[in-house]
Design a protein that fits this description.
This protein has helices spanning 2-6, 9-52, 73-95, 105-124, 130-148, 152-174, 192-224, and strands at residues 56-57, 179-180. With 225 residues, the chain is mainly α. The protein has one domain (27-52, 73-224). It has a two-stranded antiparallel ribbon with strand order 1-2. Helix 2 packs antiparallel against helix 7, helix 4 (105-124) packs antiparallel against helix 7 (192-224) and helix 5 runs parallel beside helix 7. The protein is globular. The two termini are 29 Å apart. 32% of the residues are buried.
């Protein structure tokens, strides 16, 4: 009798745990896929703006798509977007500083719109010189962080992302993969780190919002159970 009464308790303890681990892993994959496709879409749109303005030049033999973009650019941007979008909420949890500033989708969409506007300004607006353009974009990028983020982790990750992405761009240009017209910061444009910083903040906000939505759904399911 004791053995029959003890046996049903084992699945009850292990079942929810295994289900929870599986659910978290699947949600992580889904978030990564969503972030990847968002990054691909933004890369196609923003890179098209740069090419139309002749800011970025690719060799003729690699311009094969209707988006006039090298085939490797969207997947690379999508992968970077997924990594950044997953890293931001992970860093928040690690530091014990959950990000609660403007946590709604309308704010995230405004952040995306501002980021696209900053990139559009770098390609379309004519400034007297590159220094003026770089300072303007730097102010706009910091303004984007202050308006939609305001976290120390967000600022630190944004600066780190801008540094690494600019370094990778320098190496790609140095090896002749593509080039910038009128480079004024070694092989690239001086305003490029500002674009990377703003892009990191934007994808971080999207990743945080997706993580918060996931936690909300899990909490609702737990409450129902």
């Amino acid at each position: 009798m004791a053995e029959n009464g003890a046996m049903p308790t084992l699945p009850k303890k292990c079942g929810p745990y295994i289900s929870s681990v599986t659910s978290c892993g699947m949600n992580l994959v889904i978030r990564g896929i969503v972030l990847f496709f968002i990054g691909v879409f933004l890369a196609l749109v923003l890179n098209l703006l740069q090419i139309q303005r002749n800011v970025t030049l690719f060799p003729p033999d690699v311009i094969t798509s209707i988006f006039s973009s090298a085939w490797w650019v969207p997947p690379c941007c999508g992968t970077a977007s997924a990594v950044i979008g997953l890293l931001y909420p992970c860093m928040d949890r690690h530091l014990g500083e959950p990000h609660k500033f403007k946590r709604e989708w309308s704010s995230v969409m405004r952040c995306v719109a501002v980021f696209v506007g900053i990139n559009h300004a770098s390609a379309k607006v004519d400034f007297a010189n590159n220094i003026q353009l770089s300072l303007t974009l730097a102010a706009l990028s910091i303004g984007l962080w202050w308006t939609f983020d305001r976290s120390r982790s967000g600022f630190g990750l944004g600066v780190g992302i801008a540094f690494l992405a600019t370094l990778v761009s320098q190496l790609l240009v140095y090896n002749g993969v593509y080039q910038y017209t009128s480079p004024d910061f070694l092989y690239v444009r001086s305003w490029l780190p500002c674009i990377f910083f703003a892009g990191g903040i934007t994808m971080g906000n999207i990743g945080r919002q997706l993580a918060m939505y996931e936690c909300k759904v899990i909490a609702e399911k737990s409450h129902e159970d």
